[in-house]
Write a structure and sequence with these properties.
161 residues, alpha+beta, Aminopeptidase, 5 helices, globular
Length: 161
């Protein structure tokens, strides 16, 4: 794994990372990054996400990409949610992904910092996310960024029963 860290650091030094709003032409690379992480290609899902979150006219929604060397290295998506269950508005990050060969170069941190800056501009002081408890990779990332357990309990129901 040390070679991966060295490669990622060299990539970051060689090609500066630029975080920006997604463009329609970025979608194929976002789909590829997600498929590389999840093992599933979901073009219809991502087309809908682009429609919902990709427009610059949506002030409370963010779909950001990190670009370096002419390719998309990662993405982050989130929004400000208002007053759900009596809680004050907060920022929610519901997707973040970085190409496996670009990890450890600070790209995830840059994406999270950028989306949090957008939340702050909207007056939000808290950011939240939800993830599977057995996803140690993303849990480690968020913990390294200062996120910790929130005062909520996730509930679910199996609709097949």
């Amino acid at each position: 794994m040390i070679w991966l860290k060295k490669e990622a650091v060299e990539m970051a030094l060689k090609d500066p990372v630029r975080v920006r709003s997604v463009q329609p032409g970025d979608l194929a690379e976002v789909i590829g990054i997600d498929a590389g992480i999840t093992g599933m290609r979901k073009p219809d899902y991502w087309s809908e996400i682009l429609q919902r979150y990709g427009s610059g006219r949506r002030r409370q929604r963010f779909f950001l990409v990190a670009e370096a060397g002419g390719r998309i290295e990662g993405f982050a998506i989130g929004e400000v949610r208002d007053w759900e269950y009596g809680m004050p508005p907060c920022g929610w990050v519901f997707a973040i992904g970085v190409r496996p060969d670009a990890r450890l170069a600070g790209i995830g941190t840059r994406l999270l910092d950028a989306i949090c800056a957008g939340f702050r501009r909207l007056g939000v002081t808290t950011v939240r996310t939800i993830l599977a408890r057995d996803n140690s990779l993303i849990l480690s990332f968020f913990r390294s960024q200062g996120l910790m357990a929130a005062p909520f309990i996730a509930l679910e129901k199996d609709l097949e029963r």
